[in-house]
Amino acid sequence: MRIPRTSTRRLVGGTAVVAAAAVAVTVPFTAGAHSSKDDVRDAVQGGKAKNVILLIGDGMGDSEITLARNYTVGAAGRLSMDGFPLTGAYTTYAVHADKTPDYVTDSAASGTGWATGQKTVNGRISKTPDTNQPLQTILEIAQQSGYATGNVTTAELTDATPAVLDSHVADRGCQGPADMKNCPTDLISAGGGGSIAEQTVNHKVDVLFGGGKQRFDQTVTEGRFKGQTVLQQAQQLGYQVVTDKAGLQATKPGAPVLGLFATGNQPVEWTGLNAAVGGTTPQRCTESNPKRPAATPSLADQTAKAIELLEAKGKERGRDHDKGFFLQVEGASIDKQDHAADPCGQIGETAAFDKAVKLARDYAAKHPDTLVVTTADHGHTSQIVPLEATPPGLSSTLVTNEGQQLKVNYSTNTPGQSQEHTGTEVRIAAQGPQAYRVLGVTNQTDLFTTLREALRTR
User: Fold this and answer.
1) Residue 35 burial by CB count (10 A; 0-12/13-18/19+): exposed, middle or buried?
2) Under a CB-based contact definition with an 8 Å cutoff, are residues 449 and 437 in contact?
3) Of 117, 120, 143, 418, which is least surrounded by CB within 10 A?
4) Whether 107 is catalytic
């Protein structure tokens, strides 16, 4: 029988369970059959999305997900991100300037992949690998098509993953006007757009939430806003500026919003002992951080407000406007704590990210014309190893919420050095219009196509 395109399907073992209206139909298929992807595609709700929410767990490979799951909900438990109906994997490699593979990517090149559909060299933000020319991003496409747009991160708003959506620079380090040493062709005087901070506010993204106030406090040295700080530039462009949880909660729809909730990266949620040579004594993580100001909103807080404001933005355009919003949300410090071999910080950030995922999925449950995708930009270091193992690098033993011991190892670099990314493929999962596109093993650049196809005129 033919399955209506407006139906939905859950995959359970080797059976696809289809719900259409009030009738449940069970259609068997052979696991791994060539036609299964087409079957699922036909069963996914509609073909176009009113809203798209993309959630990026930076550095959140399968090991990082498993570690957080084991610690917080148990080996047989499931995180919110485990509940997506459609799951696949994608490859994450970058390229060299001659477009040959660079097997381990950084966040700039990987983010450029899904933001533009093209791979680039490590360190470059949404520009070509060979000619250093700007590449149109999915956020720019969404803006041009009439969608409201948002960009949320726990890192600095000028960090690589958020930056790939709304800026184009030769080097990811060119975050503020004082940081432009490695980007001479991106200077305003050279015909470029200036620093990432300047380009970010010039893009007039409707919602910008993150850290990195230090970049926006820098003084603009060229162009129309010369002599003013980037923050003053944003205010002149009509931005409301908020800096704490109370300000976030009080923000009303209307003007675009710039939320800067930390000088640098937002402080992590959890604390504990870093991994060490020879291991640590068994530890429980402290689910708080004395260095995190109480006024700092959680990632879920920021995500909820972003959705509220973006949804209101769409309604402002009138009843005949059927386009909603595009929103990217990044849990940035999964990666940063993996670099630091800090298992408790890493797990806490994964748990915080998972709360944002739940919020997005809850929203989509009420708005089925919303595509929700969650994935990572690249894999990372942490590995769960046997308790009797004696890793040559850094390790820590944790006592999970199940009361069991778990050993995590960090050995992608010499102890004392920052731990490194890995070149592994990573999970991608989705629900809603065009979600079938994540099935199988795809390329990171294919995510751009998924997002673009979902946002085509409805």
Assistant:
1) exposed
2) yes
3) 418
4) yes
State residue 7 phi and psi, 5-degree precision. Answer: -90, 170
Tell me the C-alpha distance between 421 and 335, whole Å: 9
Residue-wise pLDDT for 44-64, tens only, equals 555 789 999 999 999 999 999
Q: Please, are residues 156 and 331 in contact by the beta-carbon 8 Å criterion?
A: no
Cα–Cα distance, 368 to 431 (Å, whole number): 9
C-beta of residue 23 within 8 angstroms of C-beta of residue 1: no
φ/ψ of 300, rounded to 5, equals -65, -40
Task: Give the tokens for residue 242.
Answer: 């908020």
Domain residues of the chain, as ranges? 1-43, 47-454
Question: Is the Cβ–Cβ distance between 253 and 319 less than 8 Å?
Answer: no
Q: What tokens were used for 10?
A: 């859950």
- Name the CATH topology of 47-454: Alkaline Phosphatase, subunit A (3.40.720)
> 65-98: buried (b, 16+ CB within 10 Å) or exposed (e) per residue?
bbbbbbbbbeeeeebbbeebbbbbbbbbbbbeee
State which H helix or E strand residue 336 sits in: helix 333-339
* pLDDT (tens digit per residue) in 115-168: 999 999 999 999 999 999 999 999 999 999 999 999 999 999 999 999 999 999
Say if CB 376 and CB 346 are below 8 A apart: no
What secondary structure letter does DSSP report for 274? P
Per-residue pLDDT reduced to its tens digit, 10-32? 333 333 333 333 223 232 333 33
Q: CA geometry: angle at 62 spanning 375 and 164, to 5°?
A: 30
The active-site residue out of 36, 107, 167, 333 is 107
Enclosing H/E stretch for 155: strand 148-156
Residue indicated by tokens 């139906």: 7
What residues does 135 pair with on adjacent strands?
A: none
Rounded Cα–Cα distance for residues 434 and 453 (Å): 7
Q: Report the number of secondary-structure helices (H) and strands (E) in the chain.
A: 13, 19
